[in-house]
């Protein structure tokens, strides 16, 4: 970014407008009787993904013309810009494909700005839950539900009754989880779809989100930004090595641990 480009707060405000617009488009498809159409050639998820990405990518390019956009659908078609430690965007227009298809409402639209291989800011919208999370790293994180005023969110410190885990309904390796938890008292497991697991930790409704299954960088960047802005962090499995971006040409992530306020 240059001095002539908008500041971080202006960028964040514009991202909230863009993500709401994309969310409305996703919801138009979600509200249709898409069950029947999954038998035809284009699945509703692909349709929703493409429609949302077609809103988000040009809007980001207009906002910061020199900043490359890495978006899930374009990447699937091989349209991937070169990125490294400069500014770039990561976009997952519909994260939680299974949640969308199962109509359990826990899918999200994700936009994050990266720099130096770390998130700078990000937004996660769950349009079917009418809930928006956003954060500016080293500043604050917020949550807005429906028309209510935004509330600041933050991670919670260690709870005496034990750890609440945020977990995927489908991904995870029970043996690795058991090994990771060794010695830590477990209070409960809260299942959630898509990047909402990061948001549960960011809000202090869960303490840890260990991910011992595959994800791509666009699945994690926006949730990572929200979590880090709320006082949390993400590390590799060792609990120490910082989790970074622009790692590989295919944008696949290694296993990771998303931490709230516990050590
Ligand atoms: N084999 C694989 N490679 C890369 N990412 C995978 C994967 N299997 C699942 N994922 C990612 O995990 C996400 C779903 O996680 P969860 O079940 O925790 O909600 C998927 O998001 P999409 O639904 O956007 O495809 C997908 O990106
Ligand atoms: Mg995804």
TrEMBL record:
SUPFAM superfamilies, per database record: Carbohydrate phosphatase (SSF56655)
Binding site for Mg(2+) 1: 72, 92, 94-95, 219
Binding site for substrate: 72, 94-97, 219
Location(s) in or outside the cell: Cell inner membrane
Any single GO CC term annotated in Swiss-Prot or TrEMBL for this entry: plasma membrane
Membrane topology value: Peripheral membrane protein
EC identifiers of the protein: 3.1.3.7
Biological process annotations from GO: inositol metabolic process; phosphatidylinositol phosphate biosynthetic process; signal transduction; sulfur compound metabolic process
Pfam families in the record: Inositol_P
Main location as per UniProt: membrane
InterPro entries, alphabetized: CysQ, Inositol_monoP_metal-BS, Inositol_monophosphatase-like, Inositol_monophosphatase_CS
Binding locations of Mg(2+) 2: 92, 95, 219
Role summary: Converts adenosine-3',5'-bisphosphate (PAP) to AMP.
Similarity comment: family membership: Belongs to the inositol monophosphatase superfamily. CysQ family.
PANTHER family referenced in this protein's UniProt entry, alphabetically: INOSITOL MONOPHOSPHATASE (PTHR20854), INOSITOL-1-MONOPHOSPHATASE-RELATED (PTHR20854:SF4)
The protein's name: 3'(2'),5'-bisphosphate nucleotidase CysQ
Organism of provenance: Aestuariispira insulae
Name of the gene encoding the protein in the UniProt record: cysQ
